[in-house]
Specification:
alpha+beta; two-stranded parallel sheet; 33% helix; CoA-disulfide reductase (NADPH) activity; FAD/NAD-bd_sf
Length: 55
């Protein structure tokens, strides 16, 4: 089994992990991210800051 380690879980790391999973579902994929949240969508940030989306 191929084990792939990705350092960095924001947009780039999450995209690579997703593409690798689509490429081969047998890959073991580990993503390391120093922050609490692995990734987030910047496009929704104005809605959150404007109080439209609750915490």
């Amino acid at each position: 089994m191929t084990h792939i380690i990705i350092v960095g879980g924001v947009a780039g790391g999450a995209t690579v992990a997703s593409q690798l999973r689509r490429l081969n579902s047998d890959y073991k994929i580990t993503v390391y991210e120093k922050d609490r949240d692995v990734t987030f969508a910047n496009c929704g940030l104005p809605y959150y800051l404007g109080g439209i989306i609750p915490d």
